[in-house]
């Protein structure tokens, strides 16, 4: 007889999400992002800080305000807009090529067709594009308008995830989103995973440091199997003959 499927749901996750939600400031309502912009921005942002990537992509969009103009852009001209960017030449060549491949596949310069694909097929399509890795692909799916169970995990988010036991100890970074989704309640939606990811990122930055985690102040410490527990204060035993006893002894000796 076939063994029943066993999805090891981690019952700590709802409590973790509740604590993290209370910790986080309300998320501002942001204007809708075109998934194609998110895709190209993700390629540009590799190896850059968030502020640096945003400034760089704004320069590109000012020079090429339409996707058609960027599709037809000369990579050498694009490269001049990527000064100081890691792998600038490769990224400059990748941006027009990505747009050409998207248009060849769907017939238009749009990722709307991804809405008709399941998550696995959509990720497979995106990660075949030049310089698009799993993290970029997952971030793009969040903007496709379909309700997908996806979670973005970078190295900072991975640190508390591993310490909390939400993934296998030796699992590669690319496997962590799937492993966490498998442990989550079936009722969770993409918004729950997004909040969990945002909260774990905050925990990583404030308390779950790489070298010396501040477990004493971490809001998830009581749920963490690897948290350093504060030692209980040792019971102090008084010496039976204190100062007064010593004085009495001296008087007796006199």
From TrEMBL:
GO terms for biological process: DNA repair. One of its GO terms (molecular function) is catalytic activity. InterPro entries: DNA_glycosylase (IPR011257), HhH_base_excis_C (IPR023170). Transmembrane segments: none annotated. Keywords: 4Fe-4S, Iron, Iron-sulfur, Metal-binding. It comes from the Bacteria. The keyword Iron applies. This is HhH-GPD domain-containing protein.
């Amino acid at each position: 007889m076939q063994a029943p499927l066993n999805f090891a749901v981690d019952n700590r996750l709802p409590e973790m999400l509740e604590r993290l939600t209370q910790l986080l400031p309300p998320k501002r309502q942001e204007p809708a992002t075109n998934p194609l912009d998110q895709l190209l921005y993700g390629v540009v942002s590799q190896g850059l800080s968030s502020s640096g990537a945003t400034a760089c992509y704004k320069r590109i969009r000012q020079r090429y305000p339409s996707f058609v103009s960027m599709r037809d852009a000369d990579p050498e001209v694009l490269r001049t807009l990527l000064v100081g960017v890691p792998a600038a030449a490769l990224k400059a060549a990748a941006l027009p090529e990505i747009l050409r491949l998207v248009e060849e596949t769907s017939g238009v310069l749009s990722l709307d067709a991804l809405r008709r694909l399941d998550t696995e097929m959509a990720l497979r399509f995106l990660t075949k594009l030049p310089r698009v890795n799993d993290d970029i692909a997952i971030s793009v799916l969040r903007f496709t308008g379909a309700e997908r169970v996806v979670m973005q995990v970078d190295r900072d988010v991975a640190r508390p995830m591993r310490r909390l036991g939400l993934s296998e100890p030796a699992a590669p970074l690319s496997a962590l989103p799937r492993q966490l989704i498998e442990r989550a309640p079936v009722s969770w939606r993409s918004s729950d995973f997004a909040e969990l990811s945002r909260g774990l990122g905050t925990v990583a930055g404030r308390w779950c440091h790489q070298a010396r985690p501040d477990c004493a102040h971490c809001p998830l410490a009581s749920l963490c199997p690897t948290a350093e527990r504060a030692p209980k204060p040792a019971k102090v035993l008084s010496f039976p003959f204190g100062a007064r006893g010593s004085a009495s002894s001296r008087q007796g000796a006199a």
